[in-house]
Specification:
The complex is a heterodimer of chains A (358) and B (260). Chain A is mostly helical. Chain A has helices at residues 13-16, 23-43, 46-72, 80-97, 103-122, 131-150, 178-201, 203-213, 215-220, 225-252, 262-275, 280-307, 314-335, 340-353; strands spanning 163-164, 169-170, 173-174, 254-255. Chain A has a single domain (23-353), classed as ABC transporter involved in vitamin B12 uptake, BtuC (Orthogonal Bundle), CATH 1.10.3470. In chain A, the strands form two sheets. Chain A has a two-stranded antiparallel ribbon. The two termini of chain A are 14 Å apart. With 260 residues, chain B is of the alpha/beta class. Helix content of chain B is 37%, strand content 24%. Chain B has ten helices and ten strands. Chain B has helices spanning 48-55, 78-83, 101-107, 117-122, 126-144, 160-172, 190-207, 218-224, 242-246, 249-256; strands spanning 8-19, 22-33, 37-41, 63-68, 71-72, 86-88, 178-182, 210-214, 227-232, 235-240. In chain B, the strands form two sheets. In chain B, strands 6-7-8-3-9-10 form a six-stranded mixed β-sheet, sandwiched between helices. A four-stranded antiparallel β-sheet of chain B has the order 2-1-4-5, with helices on one face. The longest helix of chain B has 19 residues, at 126-144. The radius of gyration of chain B is 19 Å and the shape is globular. The chains are: A mainly alpha (358), B alpha/beta (260). At the A-B interface, helix 1, helix 7, helix 8 and helix 9 of A face helix 2, helix 3, helix 4 and helix 5 of B.
Chain lengths: 358, 260
């Protein structure tokens, strides 16, 4: 009843082409953003910021980047972790070698370096596709894992192999406290999500989707596969690189190459698959599912045990966590192979007609 | 007929195409006049689709040359053909399944959109204006094809006949000089065929688009085309006006067998 677009007439194509054509969606999203900026800092405690919210924001950004490539352009990648690492180490090198650069510029330069590498490692996509491309991008993962471990220049010859940054400020705003870190990541995420949405609803996004859905037809209507694929690799790697730089700088503070191992690549790919390929909001769902659910189970299971008077050992909790988490993944993939985003879209469609479905 | 048939726009000279040992096309020559509807017919496996693929650069013939608008065409890629104003529809609908009808047709205008990545990322100024200007054009095509009611529907959900229509819409969005239609009416019922014929004739009539079409329905071919070329086993066995072709003994033999 509430979710209706009755009476919302559009008189221009501009009004019809906006991101949220339905007024209720617009208000809802604005309310969520406002709550995230104002409400959450008042409610959440430090643990919540450190363990849940900041990782969620940063990995959402990375998942968004992976989704642009895998979901929108149909080029599968297992190298996302490597591009996060490139972003992080490139930003680190810009920071220590050109100290006068402001933090935002450093992050963006890290992203751009990652984008350049994305183009380079995207070249195989012009010849191979599907699983073979996945293997080719896996090569990027292993190569950069090795490079950051063995080539001393990247880590400024740090003896322990780990690098660290501290005293981060953005235009004089100190972002060392968890709240400020959270707000900084949130601001970046909002801007990048908007950029991703704009790209996917414009000509470039349509080119990516055309290549994904039917590459022969795309070429016949004048799309150059090389440009479409490599631009998707570049933009995706840029997003992932910025996320990697944030992960190193803001979330970890000090890190070593293992922080961006192949596990991270798989994690990001699963976020996209579970959240919904080819959907911006799906990236957030996927990130939330993968990051928040295990933590939630971890807290919730002992509480549930107490309720029935059973003491559950920590080992049992961590086993149960894996079992439940795994079965939930299977459950969601069976119920809706197109991901949580599709469930969301379907329920919105149902809601529009509720309570009179016919 | 009131329409003005122009000069030769596309001239295929001695085209031969082989895939390994298989001869798909052997020494085929024919031409297409500007503004005409040119049909290519022939039994299954005659090389009709290969012929279209040669014209828009998907296949590269080993021998022969193609003159397009008076110039010899060099090595050709599909997107270069698109740039020169050749667009096509597909036999097995090749729409972008995950996208809406509107987006599918908008994609057809990719070549005409010039704004760069940064402007698109910000949805700002020129990029936004360009998007809206093209939306206007696309809406005209949607009106023309009478598919207003499904413009926001994902094409995967549409029935076959409408998908064919969207496919035509996407090809029209390029504002082509030459439109290649690969069996636009295959698998349609009589009403859908009538609609499709009407659209093809209207496109030809209103926009002056040259049309090369492959079709199996002889009634349709004889009614709407100006000239017909007949292929069989990769060879040309007939060329001329519909009536001429219909009475040619070679063509009858190819279609009905030697006994008739």
């Amino acid at each position: 009843m509430i979710y209706r677009e009755n009476g919302q007439f559009k008189t221009s194509y501009g009004a019809d082409q906006q991101i949220f054509p339905i007024a209720q969606d617009r208000y809802l999203v604005l309310a969520i953003i406002a709550f995230a900026f104002i409400g959450v800092p008042m409610l959440a405690d430090e643990y919540f910021f450190r363990a849940i919210l900041i990782p969620f924001l940063i990995l959402s950004l990375a998942a968004l980047g992976v989704n642009l490539l895998v979901g929108y352009c149909g080029q599968i990648t297992l190298g996302a972790g490597a591009f996060m690492a490139i972003g992080a180490y490139a930003a680190y090198n810009f920071l220590i070698r050109v100290p006068e650069l402001p933090l935002l510029a450093v992050l963006i330069l890290g992203g751009l370096t990652s984008a350049a590498m994305g183009i380079l490692f995207g070249i195989p996509s012009l010849r191979v596709r599907g699983l073979y491309l996945a293997v080719a991008t896996l090569a990027a993962q292993f190569f950069w894992d090795w490079a950051f471990l063995r080539i001393g220049w990247f880590t400024n010859y740090s003896s322990s192999g780990s690098v660290s940054v501290s005293n981060l400020t953005v235009f004089g705003w100190d972002i060392s406290s968890p709240v400020n870190k959270y707000l900084f990541c949130l601001a970046i995420l909002v801007v990048f999500a908007l950029i991703a949405k704009n790209l996917t609803r414009a000509s470039l996004g349509r080119q990516w989707m055309a290549i994904r859905d039917m590459d022969v037809a795309a070429e016949v209507i004048g799309i150059r596969p090389m440009w479409a694929k490599l631009s998707a690799f570049a933009v995706s790697s840029f997003f992932v690189g910025v996320a990697g730089a944030l992960w190193g700088f803001v979330h970890l503070g000090s890190w070593e190459p293992a922080a961006f191992s192949v596990d991270r690549s798989f994690q990001l790919l699963f976020m996209v698959i579970i959240g919904g390929m080819g959907s911006i909001v799906g990236s957030f769902f996927g990130a939330a599912f993968i990051i928040i659910l295990p933590i939630f189970l971890n807290q919730f299971l002992p509480a549930l045990g107490d309720l029935f008077g059973i003491a559950i050992s920590t080992a049992a909790v961590s086993h149960a966590e894996f079992i439940i988490f795994g079965s939930l993944i299977v459950f969601f993939l069976i119920v809706e192979p197109h991901g949580l985003a599709r469930l969301w879209a379907t329920s919105k469609e149902k809601l529009r007609l509720w309570p009179f479905p016919h | 007929m009131s329409k003005q048939i122009g000069d030769v726009i596309l001239d295929l000279q001695n085209i031969s195409l082989r895939f390994g040992g298989v001869k798909a096309l052997t020494d085929i020559s024919f031409n297409v006049y500007e503004h005409e509807i040119r049909a290519i017919i022939g039994p299954n496996g005659a090389g009709k689709s290969s012929m279209l693929n040669v014209i828009n650069g998907v296949y590269h013939p080993q021998d022969g040359k193609i003159m397009y608008r008076g110039e010899e065409r060099q090595q050709m890629d599909p997107h270069l053909a698109a740039r020169q104003g050749i667009s096509r529809t597909f036999q097995n609908i090749a729409l972008f399944k995950g996208m809406s009808v509107l987006d599918n047709i908008m994609t057809g205008r990719t070549l005409k959109m010039k704004s760069n990545l940064l402007l698109q990322a910000l949805w700002w100024g020129p990029a936004r204006n360009e998007e809206l200007a093209h939306r206007q054009k696309v809406e005209e095509i949607i009106d023309f094809l009478e598919i207003q009611h499904i413009r926001k529907t994902p094409v995967g959900r549409l029935p076959y006949g409408l998908q064919k229509r969207v496919d035509l819409g996407r090809a029209l969005a390029m504002e082509p000089k030459v439109l290649l239609l690969d069996e636009p009416m295959a698998g349609m019922n009589v009403e859908e065929k009538q609609d499709m014929c009407r659209f093809i004739l209207d496109v030809n009539d209103q926009f002056g688009t040259t049309i090369v079409l492959i079709e199996h329905d002889m009634g349709v071919v004889m009614d709407i085309s100006d000239r017909v070329v007949v292929l069989d086993y990769g060879k040309k066995i007939g060329d001329g006006e519909p009536d001429e072709v219909r009475s040619s003994p070679e063509v009858i033999k190819a279609y009905l067998g030697a006994g008739h």
